[in-house]
Amino acid sequence: MKSGAHLAPGGGTSPYRFREPNYQSYRSPYGPQYKVGAHMGIMNRTSLQAWGTMGIGFGAVAGIFALFFFDGVPKVRKDILQKIPIIGDFYVHEVPPEDNPF
Fold it and tell me: Which UniProt keywords apply (predicted)?
């Protein structure tokens, strides 16, 4: 027994001995042979896949929304939206010379 093992966590004495934390729980050779699956915190492979799929979906929708929300910004229109093959011609903005104040 280590010195101080008979003391309770609050500093007083305890009527029982504390167990050392290095023990293993008993596994019967006749019981089910289970294994703990791979996990990260509370997320296992199945829940991580479900949350990842949902996160990718929300991210894609948010990105598409941001592109079309900022389509009036000339830099976004010129650098991104005009380079999309099918709808790029829609975003070509040419001002007629008679409407140009400069």
Answer: Membrane, Transmembrane, Transmembrane helix
Q: Cβ neighbours of residue 92 under 8 Å, at least 6 residues apart?
A: 82
In a 10 Å sphere around its CB, with 0-12 CB exposed, 13-18 middle and 19+ buried, how is residue 80 labelled?
middle
Q: Tokens 């896949």, residue?
A: 49
- Strand locations in 1-102, DSSP E? 39-40, 43-44
